[in-house]
Amino acid sequence: MDGSTSFVLLIYLAKVEKVKQEYSEERRSFLRQSFGIMGFGFVSFAFLNQSCEQDEDPIVSSGSVDINLNEGKYTTLLAVGGTVKQLFERKNNLFPLIITRTEEDTFSVISSRCTHQDYEIDLPVDKDGVLVTTCQKHGAQYLADGGKVIEQPKPSGTATDLDTFEYEFNAESNVLTIHF
Ligand code: FES
Q1: CA-based angle 103:128:132, to the nearest 5?
Q2: How far is the CA of 161 from the centre of ligand 1 (A)?
Q3: Which residue minimizes the CA distance to atom 3 of ligand 1?
Q4: For 10, 14, 33, 82, which has the most beta carbons within 10 A of its beta carbon?
């Protein structure tokens, strides 16, 4: 092999090595992107799967929750006549409860789901000395104490009494336990 042939051969081998390096880098880049997409897909799938699992069972009609009347919005319930509306996660068909302190050691725990057409009713207000909750959809009204319907929907329709919930109250700790 003469000098010029060796030179051409060296250039050829250098080019081959360069092409191999470029191919290797492209391949690594491709794999990085692919695994990145796969990772994103996996995380998305896990999230959606979890969401779907929750959506499959959004309502839990059993169990109980404790609320401490010394905390947050519940301090309203420290006084007789205090009333709050509160949604408890995955409970009561995703309608809040309306909790009212009716006596020193007595409460009313009712659903805020209007029995006419499932509209969410308001927080009770004082109406001539009685706490009354109203459904803004067709005007049905209920007593905050016990959920009895006192005004039917307009212009027509029938509402029945609201759902009520059992509870226990610990006067020492000021914890109200609501059973679903
Ligand atoms: S949905 Fe409540 S009164 Fe009609």
Answers
A1: 65
A2: 12
A3: 138
A4: 82
